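Fold in tokens:
===
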Amino acid sequence: MNDKKYDIEAIPGERWFPKETSFEEDMGLYWGDWGVNSEVDKLKAVLMRRPGKEIENFDAKEVRFSEEAIDIELMRKQHDGVAKIYEDFGTKVYYVEEQRDDRPNAVFCRDLMFMTPEGAILTRPGMAARRGEERYIAQALAKLGVPILRTIAGDGIFEGANAMWVDRHTCVVSTGSRCNQRGYEQVKHQLAHMGVEVWHMQQPYSNIHIDGLMNPISEDKILVHASQVPYDILDMLKKKGYEILEAPSRTEVRETFGCNFVALEPGHIVLPEGNPRTQELLEKNGVKVQTVDISEIMKGKGALHCITAYLKRG
């Protein structure tokens, strides 16, 4: 009988462990200086679409533009004027270079993506006349090296202006004609991975996006169209430390886009020309207000916030 025992070498472990950092921590190392978790932190980079061939021949009614004729070259000049304000402030302006020739609404880049601390959520527009624009946003983001975390899929609908950052851990997302329940659930699920609590807001039938009804000015001030914003949202903002400034003119909110401004930094905004009562209210409350003429752009029923997709804040 053989009593000899054999000592077999153990299989060694791999002897390494993964790098345990968050995607947000890795962003600057591997992707670039991107990320947004605020509507008011210093604006450092944006994505825009300078009006191209797509605005030269279209059916205004089909794409929900004003019936009033557009001065195409003036529209481009006004768009350039907005970009110059950003650049003079120190904001890097990137452009969507390619787009479909039949999509004049593509100038409104905000609707086509929503930026988070970890990258972009690519949207899925509600209007048939806008569907497909998002492909070229994806192309532009990929070229820049901006990570795309999710593309709204299935029967989900979501547009970027249906979401608003309150702070790093709080975001409002609205449902309505431009964001359905399936789209909302996809956005909420993605943000949950980043430790973000999502507050649901029912968009009124008379309006399509949050930025037509409310817009933060700083970390502690927000302009709202009071009759159209649900109480629970305003109560949450109040408890977060926001001072609620009520827009003084329904006409300015609805006709000249008094809520549709862009904060360059806390307490410093760019506002469309033609909103004197709103401007007066803001300035009386210590807000620095720059105005810009975007009369031709507004014929597309959108304004400053609509044409500006944020890539980096803070």
User: Anything to note?
Assistant: The CA atoms of residues 44 and 90 lie 7 Å apart. The chain has a mean pLDDT of 97. The chain has one domain: 32-313.
